[in-house]
Design brief:
It is built from 2 helices and 38 strands. By secondary structure, the protein is mainly beta.
């Protein structure tokens, strides 16, 4: 799996890894190819470290499939288009020192010519992009690139996907920080618009191991889907806002299709408004599956809302906590949702048909106990009723548990999995010695949410 954004001390979080040693092919600012086979282009930006994106684009234009473009520290202004090529574009010194800045004029990075997962953007800060139709930071159209170890921040996307917009394809969005992106009503766009951090439309994207924080959008403020069957796993989604529009602050799962899997995510500390607001809203066209998530609502009315229009989803091993109504359901279903081994607890009773369903299948309605919610440490306390209360497998709804929990610890201890995204390690919440608190990367300026 990708980087684990679980409970850690503050400090290094993004796993950039040791970049493969490459010989520098040029001592100037120009990209120079030396060999006809796999080639490394090196881009340098001299003092004052502000350059045109043209420097990087020229290297991409000259590259062929399999080549690598290494970018030295600096701020590169403009738009970068991968132009359909299966190449790696990598920041040598990482996102704190290497910035792609759109200047508010267009998407910062564009994939729109059928790129595959071999087209890699890694290690940059991507900021100040703006696109009326979404993808202010990164726009992906009918393509499947890999976006990894990037910071995607301060972008605008009026109709959705302010940080990352995916329109078809099967991209990999992994181990990124995606925050402070804005769209919808907050930009004066109007309407019930979705996808502040990420919007995945008709896509089978893999969205894994990301930290999605402080984005603003009418609905799906953290992440929104609209069709397709994405994998959404190991993400931390905190501090996102519906801007008073009554939408889903964490996940908006709209028109999701069979095969959609939402596994082992933390959704907490988001800001919703009104009686239609929720941390997670499900309005799927086919049954989708949510397994081992921890979903905490505070200001939202619902923690999880299964919309009246939705096909019945499958919920297994989840902690659904807080809100006026922890789980909202339609009064009747032709086919009922499948609820097994969940802890659903809140200020009021679960509404609709789900209330009776929670009386069976080893579901609980007891207050979960967390290590320290005030510091966003939602690992389980030893006394929590959710410890050893999940199920390792289910014949009705097949699923595969990750080998590690959201903190990177073993997923199953004492033979039976815990409910939620974290696993109690012996008598403590984690086998690791680091101080509690949400693990934050050094470049994450939303430090109020990090351990000190």
């Amino acid at each position: 799996m990708g980087t684990k954004w679980g409970v850690r001390t503050a400090g290094a979080c993004l796993s950039m890894g040791a970049l493969t040693s490459m010989c520098l092919l040029s001592t100037s600012d120009r990209a120079v190819a030396r060999t006809p086979s796999k080639t490394t282009f090196t881009i340098r930006c001299g003092a004052p470290r502000t350059c045109s994106m043209t420097k990087v684009q020229k290297a991409v234009d000259a590259a062929v499939n399999g080549d690598r473009v290494e970018v030295d520290p600096g701020t590169y202004d403009g738009t970068l288009n991968f132009d359909g090529k299966s190449i790696e574009v990598t920041a040598v010194k990482g996102p704190t020192k290497t910035i792609l800045d759109g200047g508010g004029n267009n998407s910062v990075v564009i994939f729109e010519k059928g790129e595959t997962t071999s087209a890699v953007l890694q290690g940059f800060t991507v900021q100040h992009g703006s696109n009326l139709y979404g993808g202010g930071g990164i726009y992906i159209g009918s393509s499947s690139p890999t976006i990894q170890d990037d910071v995607i921040q301060d972008n605008e996307g009026c109709t959705g996907g302010a940080g990352v917009y995916i329109d078809e394809g099967s991209p990999v969005i992994q181990d990124n920080v995606i925050g402070d992106n804005v769209g919808g009503t907050a930009m004066g766009c109007g309407g019930y618009l979705s996808g502040g951090g990420i919007k995945s439309q008709n896509s089978d994207a893999s969205i894994v191991g990301n930290f999605i924080a402080d984005n603003t959008m009418d609905a799906g403020s953290g992440l929104a889907t609209d069709g397709g069957a994405p994998l959404i796993e190991d993400n931390i989604v905190i501090g996102n806002s519906d801007d008073g529009q009554g939408g889903a602050t964490g996940f908006e799962l709209d028109d999701s299709q069979s095969g959609t899997m939402v596994i082992q995510n933390l959704v907490a500390d988001n800001e919703g408004t009104g009686t239609d607001s929720s941390a997670v809203r499900i309005a799927a066209v086919d049954p989708i599956t949510l397994v081992s998530n921890t979903i905490i609502a505070e200001s939202e009315y619902y923690a999880v809302w299964i919309d009246d229009s939705s096909s019945p989803p499958n919920l297994v091993n989840n902690i659904v906590d807080g809100a006026q109504v922890p789980l909202g359901c339609n009064s009747t279903f032709t086919v009922a949702p499948y609820l097994s081994h969940n802890d659903v607890y809140g200020a009021s009773a679960t509404s609709g048909a789900c209330a009776s369903l929670l009386l069976s299948q080893a579901n609980l309605s007891a207050a979960p106990q967390f290590s320290d919610p005030t510091t966003l440490d939602f690992t389980e306390a030893p006394a929590s009723p959710t410890v050893d209360a999940g199920e390792n497998s289910d014949a009705t709804v097949p699923f595969t548990l990750p080998s590690e929990d959201l903190a990177g610890d073993p997923r199953i201890v004492n033979g039976t999995v815990d409910m939620g995204a974290y696993e109690l390690q012996g008598t403590s919440s984690s086998s690791r010695k680091e101080a509690p608190g949400v693990r934050c990367p050094p470049q994450l300026r939303w430090s109020v949410r990090c351990a000190s």
